[in-house]
């Protein structure tokens, strides 16, 4: 796919029995409005190539001057076997993520990604835009929730992380489902009650391994898990300065082990 994306584009795999439909991006795209995103409208869809381009780079999606952007890819309709590989989202000219009623979007994947759906993956993706309150640097709120299953590997963000937000996953990640974050990292400052990897109240069957953050940690926040989180954390660390009310690994009222 090439050119300028200006409207929401549904993607269908008309024969899922034949395997996964792969959507590859041979050039960068610029997104100018809130409808500049893709929708997984069936199972067995892969966005992006499983390998880098010949020059070692990834396709870049530039969100240009868009307030309340919902995220690049939507899978909120219970579709399993949806994969996102090797995509990079850059936010310029004041672009921000959408926030609504205590939940927030993600730059790469939207709210409710993999809700109630199995075998969803996001691999080697990144973002550099500001991560607003409740939002996620990669995927928005309720990722892998309500019986869903989401695995995130090798992803990163560099934008500042707002209150209760997460450098990789937004609020309520894995609630009632299964969420795995492996080898992910963030470098932005971590806001009040926020987390360097997962956002607030992500209290499902979460596993966070081999992850780290480098941003300064504000009160009630955590270098890995935001306030009110639960799950298994292993081989993770943070290097940012920490206030007396923040945690180098977990924020307030976390039960991560």
Give the topology.
Layout: E1 4-5, E2 9-11, E3 21-23, E4 29-31, E5 38-40, E6 45-47, E7 60-64, E8 73-74, E9 82-85, E10 88-92, E11 99-100, E12 103-104, E13 120-123, E14 126-127, E15 149-153, E16 156-157, E17 178-182, E18 185-186, E19 205-209, E20 212-213, E21 230-234, E22 237-238, E23 255-256
Parallel strand pairs: 1-4, 2-5, 3-6, 4-7, 5-8, 6-9, 7-10, 9-13, 10-14, 13-15, 14-16, 15-17, 16-18, 17-19, 18-20, 19-21, 20-22, 21-23
Antiparallel strand pairs: 11-12
Describe the protein's architecture and organization.
There is one protein chain. With 257 residues, the chain is an all-beta fold. The protein is built from no helices and 23 strands. The strands form four sheets. The chain has a nine-stranded parallel sheet, with no helix packed on it. Strand 11 (99-100) and strand 12 (103-104) form a beta hairpin. The model has no long low-confidence stretch (mean pLDDT 94).
Keywords:
single chain; mainly beta; 9-stranded parallel beta sheet; globular; 257 residues; 23 strands
Briefly, what is this?
This protein is mainly beta and 257 residues long. Helix content is 0%, strand content 28%.
SSE run: EEEEEEEEEEEEEEEEEEEEEEE
- State the separation between the terminal residues, measured CA to CA: 44 Å
SS-based class: mainly beta
* Proportion in helices: under 10%
Mean pLDDT: 94
Q: Helix segment count?
A: 0
Classify the beta-strand content into a percent band: 25-35%
Instruction: List low-pLDDT spans.
Output: none
Q: How many strand units?
A: 23
For the report, how would you describe the main beta sheet?
9 strands, parallel
Strand arrangement, major sheet: 1-4-7-10-14-16-18-20-22
Rg calculated over all Cα atoms: 16 Å
Tell me, briefly, the overall form: globular
């Amino acid at each position: 796919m090439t050119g300028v994306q200006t409207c929401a584009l549904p993607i269908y795999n008309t024969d899922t029995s034949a395997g996964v439909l792969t959507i590859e991006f041979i050039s960068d795209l610029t997104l100018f409005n809130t409808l500049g995103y893709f929708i997984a409208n069936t199972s067995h869809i892969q966005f992006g190539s499983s390998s880098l381009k010949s020059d070692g780079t990834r396709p870049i999606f530039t969100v240009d001057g868009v307030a309340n952007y919902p995220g690049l890819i939507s899978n909120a309709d219970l579709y399993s076997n949806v994969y996102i590989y090797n995509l990079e989202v850059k936010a310029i000219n004041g672009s921000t993520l959408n926030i609504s009623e205590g939940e927030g979007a993600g730059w790469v994947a939207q709210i409710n990604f993999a809700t109630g759906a199995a075998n969803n993956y996001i691999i080697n993706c990144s973002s550099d835009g500001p991560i607003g309150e409740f939002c996620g640097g990669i995927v928005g709120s309720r990722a892998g929730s309500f019986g869903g299953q989401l695995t995130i590997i090798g992803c990163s963000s560099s934008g500042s992380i707002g209150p209760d937000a997460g450098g990789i996953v937004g609020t309520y990640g894995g609630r009632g489902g299964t969420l795995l974050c492996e080898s992910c990292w963030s470098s932005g400052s971590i806001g009040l009650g926020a987390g360097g990897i997962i956002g607030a109240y992500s209290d499902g069957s979460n596993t966070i391994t081999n992850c780290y953050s480098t941003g300064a940690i504000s009160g009630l926040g955590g270098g890995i898990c935001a306030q009110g989180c639960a799950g298994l954390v292993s081989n993770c660390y943070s290097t940012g300065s920490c206030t007396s009310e923040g945690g180098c690994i977990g924020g307030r009222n976390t039960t991560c082990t």
